[in-house]
Amino acid sequence: MMGISLKNFMLYWMGNEIGSRAPDGINVMPVSIPVGTHPLHAVGTAWAAKLKGDKIVTLTYFGDGATSKGDFHEAMNFAGVYKTPTIFFCQNNQYAISVPRSLQTASKTIAQKAIAYGFDGIQVDGNDLFAVFVATKEAVEKARAGGGPTLIEGVTFRFGPHTTADDPTKYRTEKEIEPWKPLDPLARLKLYLSSKGLWREEVEQRITEEAQKEIDQAIKDAEAVPPPAPDEMFTSVFAEMTPQLKEQLEYLKSTLA
Ligand SMILES: Cc1ncc(C[n+]2csc(CCOP(=O)(O)OP(=O)(O)O)c2C)c(N)n1
Ligand SMILES: [Mg+2]
Known about the structure:
This protein has helices at 6-13, 38-52, 70-82, 101-104, 113-116, 129-144, 174-177, 185-195, 201-223, 232-235, 243-256; strands spanning 58-63, 86-92, 95-96, 99-100, 120-125, 150-155. It is α/β, with parallel strands linked by helices. Magnesium ion is lined by residues 63-65, 93, 95-96.
């Protein structure tokens, strides 16, 4: 949707740095593996754009766990002071791996954290596509008009395990998951569209088949790219390598030799 190809997305997950490089003119940053470090980048780019008179708005997505990171608070503070056009979107899925939301913050909501930094915070039903769309749209319009940042908390629930290495039965019960099941956003959207006469089984089948084909092709294309040389993990970080990266690259080379 934003101009990143599915093939590049696959390359990223295969550990190939090419996957992280957005095509020229596409303003999408690489996926952030360290939790919560990227809100700073969103504020930095928004601030730079504001100084240059460039009418962009930045959106940054992170989890409930990320709000415990210092980086998140530094980003919120700078955004508030410099009124940067930044939307902070917290996907509050109630868990950071095994750590529940109640151990993440003593605040009643995540949205209210915006008050301390002097800008608007809004809590929305994160499983309601229309609520999320409208809240984001309004925040973007406000930022574009010079109204500064917004924190949006989308309240949702992580149904599955965090990763294949995680076993959620160790820290939560089926009883806790049960009430969220009817709130599944896909099921709700389908119900809504069906009630309006806008959804048909044959359309669903066709879209599913088309998507499957597209994904299969992207995997094939990504697998056809030769594996990256080990030195790419140093050369692709900055436009020019820092002295530390040069040293590390030399060390790797000598070790491999
Ligand atoms: C700085 C840092 N510490 C720890 C990790 C390991 N880790 C990966 S995901 C995760 C939990 C993230 O929880 P949350 O922010 O709620 O996002 P969610 O995965 O629930 O969407 C942790 C601790 C990491 N990637 N980066
Ligand atoms: Mg989470």
